[in-house]
Amino acid sequence: MSDLKHIAIIMDGNGRWAKKRDKDRKVGHYFGSENVREIALAALDMDVEVITLYAFSTENWKRPQKEIDYLMKLPAIFFERFLKELNEKGIRVCTIGDLSKIPDRTRKVMHNAVEKTKHNTKLTLNFALNYGSRDEIVRATQRMIDDGVTEVTESLLTSYLDTAGLPDVDLLIRTGGDQRLSNYLLWQLAYSELVFVDMEWPLFGPEAFIKCIDDYQSRQRRFGGL
Ligand code: IPE
Ligand code: IPE
Ligand code: MG
Fold it and tell me: Is 75 near ligand 1, meaning CB less than 6 Å away?
């Protein structure tokens, strides 16, 4: 599977999944986080190099404080349960997004997971947390100015983005049924294949994931050529 290195996922539909079951949205987020483990292990099996998961957007601060608080607690709950296993399986945890604006406790949990797994080489599990593509491009531009850059090229800008060093995104999957990008990886998705799945994230299992990969494999990528 040499031509499928990087899969980005918009894990959407947790709230609707919970609502249909008459449960609090938090329950949807909890089951959604359990599903991250399933999909990470499936990606590992498929020899994918990187999966980048949209966990919290720069726009998600508009949600009720109670829900934000829970979403900020979720990394601790997730890594408490799964960090050991992910580490043993050779998975490297990474983050993108502006972590300076998330609660200290959440930032520490993320840093700890990144630090503990930094030498792993099997799969990069990249969490987009307080991530927004426009914010990322603005931060990158500001850093270029701070560094005194006078000539901007595509590869230079790419190297200033949070995703620096990662391969281009080959495939974007969005669950939950909506067909939009919601400020996710706008630069990095320039030539990605897009797959929208009409299934809420907690229900999106390895089988559905493999179906998306099969769909990707059946497409012809032309990159503007013939
Ligand atoms: C995605 O599920 C998870 C986050 C945005 C954190 P949602 O919470 O957006 O679920 P829906 O879209 O309301 O169903
Ligand atoms: C995108 O989902 C963000 C994450 C999955 C973290 P949203 O539910 O926030 O997106 P919109 O509001 O439907 O565009
Ligand atoms: Mg949503």
Answer: no
Residue length of the chain: 226
Active site residue 146: no
Q: Residue 2's pLDDT is what?
A: 41
Taking the domain 6-217, which CATH number applies? 3.40.1180.10
Q: Which residues neighbour 97 within 8 Å (Cβ) at sequence distance 6 or greater?
A: 56, 58, 127, 128, 129, 130, 131, 132, 136, 162
Local structure of residue 89 (DSSP, 8 states) = T
The answer to whether the beta carbons of residues 44 and 210 sit under 8 Å apart is no
**Per-residue pLDDT tens over the stretch 47-85:** 999 999 999 999 999 999 999 999 999 999 999 999 999
Whole-angstrom distance, CA of residue 10 vs CA of residue 181: 8
Tens of pLDDT, residue by residue over 93-120, are 999 999 999 999 999 999 999 999 999 9
Strand order in the sheet with 91-96: 91-96, 123-131, 50-57, 6-10, 171-174, 193-196
The pick from 10, 11, 14 for probing ligand 1's pocket by mutation, whose C-beta has the most ligand atoms within 8 angstroms, reads 14
